[in-house]
Design brief:
The protein is built from 17 helices and 8 strands. It has 486 residues and is α/β, with parallel strands linked by helices. It has an 8-stranded mixed beta sheet with strand order 3-4-2-5-1-6-7-8, with helices on both faces. α6 crosses α17, α7 crosses α17 and α12 packs parallel to α13. The protein starts with 14 loop residues before the first helix and ends in a 5-residue tail after the last helix. 25% of the residues are buried.
């Protein structure tokens, strides 16, 4: 039978017991062991084993022990005589302990991590008697000072890594340059976020220039945004003033060109002047000589078309701007043709143009009593009063507003926009007075400056206008469209 278990399947004695006996045997403690054995044999029999007491153990057989070679009489080799009649059991009482004896220090293994951090003690202390583990496994041998020396605590569990890599002191210094680095960046970026107002003489001038450019650009962006919005349905803008020479045709063309340059398509300028208007000559490229007269001849046939067929057929009667931003329906040059534009005909033409275009700018005539003029006023969504800073032009425009108000079109007058065109460069003494007067009668007043490209009276090209003139027309056009923009 080997020395690992007893004959009844009980666990063997814990490791510290037989190791201590083996060490005593190696170092010549034979006399002390014989005396301890005699004392154990003379001890009275132990009481019956109760629950919680250690099981009887068998002393392992040591071939090097001289006692194992000559066992006492009546005792088997490797067993101790106890109070039971069965040999091989040790029935000592649990409270019985060995007298403390000095134990020689074992050689230290330099590769054992338990001895790398523990300082050797000058005097070994007696170890407590071995006790079996609760689960029946062999106990791990405990070294001296295992409960009082902190350095021996890691030796009881699985050996861990040496303490040198666990608490690395060089990790603390790296955060210092990281904290200093953002402070360096913040200090370098501080002048960019909060520039000092002073020393350079060119910085104040540059700031003023940027401010002057930023303010109008914001207004222009707002005006462009208004012109690009949806209008809900096609809108008709009527440009009216019974007085001639007040830039009525010019305003119609430039309003269509400005709105068309922003929206891209769907804008038309119609010359509805019954007394030989000139809008067809000043706007658009004359690909053909067709006018409203030719359109009315084929009006019934064109009205029955839809979709792309309608667009392609109507395009044969229209003229187009050089940049393609708007279309032109030219008026008839024969004065006798005005008698054919009755109320029903004007409405049919207006309904046809609304099917193909979103914004229709109408240049009206000078006769407020004509059926053609009155029909356009009743079909219009927005009234634009064109005038120049002269007393006769302002008086005629003011009289026309009274006529429309008396005719039951007070809402059209209240929502109207007054457009004052400057006919010459330089200051105009009556401009401020006229603007103040029409501001009390209409929804808004827009002033457009003088532009030399419009002085000759030839074809109007939107690209040839001055930047100030384009900005003024953007503001004026956005004022006209703003009530309908969604």
């Amino acid at each position: 039978m080997d020395g690992t278990e007893t004959g009844w399947g009980r666990p063997a004695e814990p490791a510290p017991r037989w190791r201590a006996l083996l060490d005593r045997a190696r170092h010549g403690a034979r006399a002390a062991e014989e005396q301890a054995a005699e004392t154990e044999r003379e001890a009275p029999p132990a009481p019956p084993q109760q629950f919680g007491q250690p099981l009887p153990t068998r002393r392992p057989y040591n071939p090097l022990d001289p006692r194992s070679q000559q066992p006492p009489a009546g005792q088997q080799p490797g067993y101790e005589q106890s109070g039971y009649e069965q040999p091989g059991f040790d029935q000592r009482a649990p409270e019985q302990q060995f007298e403390p004896r000095p134990m020689p220090q074992r050689p230290i293994n330099p590769l054992d991590p338990r001895h790398q951090v523990r300082q050797p003690s000058p005097q070994p202390q007696p170890s407590p008697p071995p006790h079996p583990e609760p689960n029946g496994r062999r106990g791990v041998p405990e070294q001296p000072h295992s409960f009082f020396s902190p350095s021996s605590a890691p030796a009881r569990s699985t050996p861990a890594a040496p303490p040198a890599p666990i608490a690395p002191p060089p990790i603390t210094p790296p955060p210092a340059p990281q904290r200093d680095y953002p402070r360096g960046r913040a200090s370098a970026a501080a002048p960019v976020r909060a520039p000092s107002p002073a020393p350079a003489p060119t910085s104040p001038a540059g700031a003023r220039i940027e401010w002057r450019q930023t303010e109008p650009s914001g207004e222009m962006e707002r005006a462009v945004a208004v012109l690009r919005r949806k209008l809900g349905k096609p809108r008709v803008l009527a440009f009216a003033n019974p007085k001639g020479g007040v830039h009525k045709t010019t305003a119609t063309v430039l309003a269509a060109a400005t709105i068309g340059s922003v929206r891209g398509r769907g804008v038309l300028a119609w010359d509805d002047n019954e007394l030989r208007g000139t809008l067809g000559l000043r706007a658009g490229s004359a690909r053909h000589a067709r006018t409203i007269k030719h359109l009315l001849a084929d009006l019934m046939q064109i009205e029955n078309l839809h979709g792309d067929g309608l667009l392609s057929e109507l395009d044969a009667y229209l003229r187009h701007a050089s940049d393609g931003s708007y279309d032109v329906l030219a008026g008839e040059e024969n004065p006798r043709f005005a008698q054919r534009l009755d109320q029903g005909t004007v409405r049919r033409v207006m309904d046809l143009l609304r099917r193909t275009h979103d914004v229709i700018c109408v240049d009206t005539g000078n006769n407020v009593e004509s059926v053609n003029w009155q029909t356009v006023m009743r079909q219009a969504d927005q009234l634009v009063i064109t005038t120049v800073p002269r007393e006769d032009a302002a008086f005629t425009a003011d009289w026309m507003l009274d006529v429309l108000d008396e005719s039951g079109m007070g809402d059209l007058v209240a929502n109207a926009v007054t457009l004052i065109s400057c006919p010459s460069p330089g200051p105009l003494p009556m401009l401020a007075d006229f603007a103040k007067h029409f501001a009390t009668r209409t929804r808004g007043v827009a002033v457009v400056p003088y532009d030399p490209s419009l002085e000759v009276g030839s074809s109007i090209e939107y690209q040839d206008l001055q930047p100030e003139t384009k900005q003024a027309w953007l503001k004026a056009a956005s004022m006209m469209i703003e009530p309908f923009a969604e």
